[in-house]
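Give me the fold.
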Amino acid sequence: MQTAPFDRVILGDLVLPDGVLHGGYVAVRAEAIAAIGQGAPPPAAEIADHRGRLVLPGLVDGHMHTSSALGWAGIEGATLSAAAGGVTTCVDMPYDVPRPVTDAGILAEKIAVVERTAHVDVALYGTITKTGGVDAIAGMAEGGVCSFKLSTYEYDAVRFPRIDHPTMVAAFREIAKTGLMVGVHNEDQEIVERLSAEAKAAGNTGPIWHARTRPPLCETMADLEIFEIGLETGAHVHIAHSSLARGFEIAEVFRRMGAKASGEACIQYLCMTEEDLVRLQGFGKCNPPFRTADEIERMWGALEAGQVAYVSTDHAPWPRERKTYAGDIFACGAGLTGMQSFAPLMYTLLAERGLSPTLMACYCAERPARFHGLFPKKGAIRIGADADLLVLEKGDFTFDEASIQDRPEARWSPYHGRAMKARVAATFLRGHPIWDGSRVLAVPGVGRFVKRQHRESYLGEV
C-alpha cells in the first residue's frame, strides 16, 4: 500500500515575511518543511486543522537566562514555558549558577543537560572569565556557541563580571576571528554605582529609584565604548538590550563608518514605562530599567525604520521571593519572566498600532535566527527549514500568570491581567506538536542543542 507523501500537514493562514497567505498549508516530512501552498492540502498521515488561525514560524528568542537562579536545572522549566509560548528555539545566555560557560568543557556539559532536559531547541552563548579567559574563545566557537556575551557592568565577579577595556579589546579581536557576534550588557559601572550609593545614603530606596540610578546616559556611554572597540577590532558588536532608540541610532552611525554594529530591543521596552515600575515594584525591575512613554514611541519609530536587529524577552525567571519588594528596590533581583507571554504580547502590540503580524515573523523569528547564525535551519516558514511553527488564535484574552508552565515560584508575570488580542493555540517543534493550547506535549529531552550553522555576520538589510 502506498504511504502518504507527508508526515503531517498544518492548515492555517501562513504569516510570511512579505504577507499573509490565507488558506495556506505547511507540509512536513522528516521534521522539515517539505511543501508550502494554498488551497486544497496534499495527502498526509496527519492533518492539523488550524484554518482561521495564524501560522507563524516558531519564535526564536535571542536572549534568555534559564540558569541564573537554579543553574542548569532551570533549563527544563524555562523551555517548558517556551513550548507553551510558541518559542521553539531559545538562545540562552552563559551567566549560569555556579559556573558560567567560559570554556569548551563547560559548554559540552551544558549541551548534555540541554539534550537531556529541554522541551524546545536551544542555542547557546559563551562568555569569558574576568581575567585570562580570551584563549578559550576559539574552543567555544568550535564547540558550537552561536554568539558571545560580555558586560560593561558587574553583577558578580565570577558569574557576571565586568570586563575591563584592555581585556575587552583582546576578546573582541579574538571573537572577530571566529566571525561570531558578541553581545554586550551596556551599562556604565561608575555612574550606576555612584548614583546607587547616593540614593541609598539618602534613603531613596523606592521602586522609581531603580530607574533614577540607571539613567539613559549610563547606557549610551557604554554603547559608544563597545562600538568604538568593535570598529577598532573588526568584531560584530551587538547591544544586548537597548531601552533607548538612541542606542539603535548610534549603531547605525557606526555601521556607516564600516563597523559591524547592531542592537536588540526587548519587548518590555516597547510597552512598559516608569509608571509600571512603580506599580509592579520588584516584579517590574530589570536592567536596563523601563523608560518613559515618549521613549516607547521613539523605540517603535526605530523598529519601523529598520534600525532594530530583533526583539527578544531577556526572560529571567527569578523565584517570586527574589522579586518581592520589602522597602528596598535595590534588594530585588533584576529580570522579568516573558517567555510564555512573548507571542501574544507581540501580536497585541502590533495589532494595537495597526501593524502587520509579518513584523512579528521578521523580528521575533527570522532576524534573531539570522543574527545568531541559525538561519536557514531556524526562523522561517521555508522549504528545507525545521518545521517549527506557532499557531495564534485571534480574539480577546487576558494573560494569567497562573497559566505559566514552569516551577510554581516562577509563575509570575509583569503582564499579569493584561488584555491580549491572541493566544498560543498550538506549537510544533520540527513538525511534532509540543503544545495543544492547554498542555505541553513535549517531554524533557525532546529539545536539541542547535549549533551555529555558519560564521557569516548578518547586520540586516541595508
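The first strand starts at residue 6 and ends at 16.
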